[in-house]
Design goal:
Elements (H helix, E strand, L loop, with lengths): L1 H35 L4 H24 L5 H4 L3 H18 L4 H8 L3 H12 L5 H19 L9 H20 L9 H23 L9 H26 L4 H8 L2 H13 L5 H25 L1
Length: 299
């Protein structure tokens, strides 16, 4: 019996790692899919949220034999608002700048979440983690200030991504207790309708006339985004977490922006300057060091 269990553990770990690789591939593809839709970012965000709401409520009904209740929605209110605004800001930003600049700016979330975790939740913090964060900031500066002169890069787009970065950190902090004791279906079924409602006034008043700017092309890519990044990736992440240590997951996820940049080169024909590769390497190296330092502080 022990031999059988020992044999199953490596198989489970291999499946978990495979699922994690698929998760990273799905999420890294998201920004390129948004640009391929040729549709305003807020439009993609709103209709993706609508689609994901129906999908996750359906999953909740099938897996837990119940419908969404007010007891699910009430604690998800603040995280849902942050989540909706984050997706809207990120999708808007990525349509206004390069995928590389968007993804590597958005990757700096740990530099906000780690110190906030120490302040709000009294988590142990190594000052070395923040020091390594400076390496990532230097790398990001190299990526942003050396964008190829193709006209695709814009500081306005980077500003939207910066807002999305802060909103994502807000979501992670405010949803910490929400995720405890609840299934991913219950959490996502509560958050996505709130996010859709929040996105609606942005589309109506900030970008008037954009929500009905939908074509058959955008319908296809919104559907792919809703299924891949909005549903499948979350399910695979839950599966991976059952057998892959959280430290390994955090380390591998650092590669996501680099993979996203490669997707953009392949599918969008984007250009990346040689000096930007150095900057990307510094961002990833700094984030890896921050992740390692943070994990050690928690042990």
């Amino acid at each position: 019996m022990r031999a059988v269990i020992a044999e199953r553990r490596p198989q489970g770990r291999a499946l978990g790692l495979t699922a994690l690789v698929a998760v990273i591939a799905c999420f890294s593809l998201g920004s390129t899919l948004v640009k391929l839709a040729h549709t305003p970012g807020v439009t993609v965000a709103f209709w993706r949220m609508i689609l994901c709401s129906f999908i996750w409520i359906g999953i909740l009904r099938v897996t837990e034999r119940r419908w969404l209740a007010w007891s699910d929605i009430r604690p998800a209110m603040v995280p849902g608002i942050a989540f909706g605004l984050n997706i809207t800001a990120f999708f808007t930003g990525v349509t206004k700048t390069t995928v590389a600049s968007a993804e590597f700016t958005g990757a700096l979330t740990p530099l906000i979440v780690v110190p906030l975790g120490a302040i709000l939740f009294h988590e142990r913090l190594r000052l070395g983690a923040l020091a390594f964060g400076l390496v990532s900031l230097v790398g990001l500066a190299i990526v942003l200030f050396n964008a190829p002169p193709t006209g695709e890069f814009s500081w306005g787009g980077v500003a939207w991504i910066g807002a999305a970065l802060c909103l994502w950190a807000t979501y992670l902090i405010t949803s910490r207790n929400l995720r405890k004791g609840r299934s991913v279906a219950a959490v996502m079924a509560a958050i996505t309708p709130i996010a859709a409602v929040v996105t609606l006034p942005v589309g109506l008043f900030v970008f008037p006339g954009s929500l009905d700017d939908v074509t058959w092309r955008s319908v296809i890519f919104i559907g792919v985004l809703g299924v891949l990044t909005g549903t499948v990736a979350h399910g695979l992440m839950v599966f991976a977490q059952k057998s892959v240590p959280i430290g390994v997951i955090s380390m591998l996820q650092v590669s996501q922006p680099a993979l996203a940049a490669l997707w953009s080169v392949w599918l969008l024909g984007s250009s990346i300057a040689s000096i930007q590769v150095l900057g990307m390497a510094l961002v990833i190296a700094g984030l890896v060091a921050v992740t390692v330092q943070t994990q050690r502080a928690r042990e």
